[in-house]
Specification:
The protein has 104 residues and is mainly beta. The chain has no helices and eight strands.
Length: 104
Amino acid sequence: MDNTGTVTRGFDATNISGVDKYSISGEKGVNLSNLVEAGIEVEFKGVQADTTIDFDDETSLDGTDDAMTLTFDGVGTAATEEDDISDVKVTMENIENVTVKVYK
């Protein structure tokens, strides 16, 4: 999902299953809602905005081994003389194991 707009967008994944990976690109990013399963990868490319990942109410996240993989490539910016640091926050509930991959 490539967000070329000027505001953060949303993607409702209701009734979408069998996805291994969501790729999000664009400065403003995309919030994911109603995911039907954990254990997938969410890749962020060039995103400079906070992101929320929510799961469908029917998705079972009651165990102690719910996992997600987050991949970051060119996300956020370091502080310079002209600009402040731009950090990016990802919010997910009930995920106990997170694998983080960072490029650049």
